[in-house]
Amino acid sequence: MLNVENLIVTVGDREILRGVDLSVGTGEFHVIMGPNGSGKSTLALTIAGHPRYEIKKGRITFNGEDITELPPDERVKRGIMLAFQHPEEVEGVRIMEFLQQVLAEVKGMDMVEAYDRIVETAKELWFKEEDLMRYVNVGFSGGERKRFEILQALLLEPKLLILDEPDSGVDVDSLSVISRKIEELHEKGTAVLLITHYGRILGHLDPSRFRVHVMREGRIVLERGGEFVKEIEEKGFQKIFEECGCNE
Ligand code: ADP
Ligand code: MG
Ligand code: MG
User: Which atom of ligand 1 is nearest to the CA of 164?
Assistant: First the structure.
């Protein structure tokens, strides 16, 4: 479904991705791990079409279509959703209005139908109806921000959900509801590309469900089964890189 081929990406004159190859099949679950600064968020944002990241070489295809140059909203319409590592505050835009508009644009849902669906789904993520009148992420805790990202995913039911550190800055209770909802989406057929630095969330997920890719300095240098997470946690990235001869 998603194919990333030899992707080279720069910000300003710095090369951040230095030849990334990655394939995600329909309904598959892939995890990307790697030290801070290895390029995980850059990869996620580039797949989502963020204009800051310039693709110098390589291409991205989705269901056979070349989407390398496609604007972000067109990617969303094709079923790609990114849940951000740092969801931003949007002063003046209420959650309800925002979600209604997204559902209208992406799913052609009318406002009334959308309203009911939003209230009902929000409850599953512990948002009350009055919370939905608040401005997007303004004054939200870490857990609330990440739960709000998951709420968008549950409403959109994307074909591919990219999650950038859904476990960072999140309280334990939020973490358990977030991981449960990710599993639910996966069971309903959403392919998942989950990025995590500490792997905290992976303790809540069945390792037979996913494959692990490890990034180092702008490249994916290792691909293993889900059980490999334990080894990473025990040894740390540096030792793993030494053992695989991944340090150039
Ligand atoms: P990760 O998510 O793995 O921690 P990032 O993709 O955020 O890594 O960052 C990879 C490298 O690219 C880092 O050295 C970071 O400083 C740099 N980088 C990322 N985004 C930008 C940006 N917008 N401007 C300048 N440097 C950036
Ligand atoms: Mg980081
Ligand atoms: Mg990051």
Answer: 2
* Domain CATH number, residue 68: 3.40.50.300
Nearest residue (CA) to ligand 1, atom 12: 16
Total domain count, the chain: 1
pTM: 0.95
Residue type, 38: S
- Could you report the predicted ipTM of this complex, rounded to two decimals? 0.95
Number of other CB atoms surrounding residue 145 within 10 Å: 20
Helix 142-156 crosses helix 95-107 at what angle (to 10 degrees)? 30
| Distance between Cα 96 and ligand 3 center (Å) | 28
Could you give the CA distance from residue 81 to residue 185 in angstroms, rounded to a whole number? 13
* Assigned domain for 218 exists: yes
pLDDT tens readout for residues 216-232: 999 999 999 999 999 99
Whose Cα sits closest to atom 7 in ligand 1?
A: 41
> How far apart are the C-alpha atoms of 43 and 150, rounded to whole Å?
20
pLDDT digits (tens, 9 = 90+) for 72-92: 999 999 999 999 989 999 999
CA 220, CA 239: separation in Å to the nearest integer?
A: 16
202, 194, 192: which is closest to 161 by C-alpha? 192
Per the structure, the complete domain to which residue 21 belongs is given by 2-81+192-244
Residue 46 in contact with ligand 1 by CB distance below 6 A: no
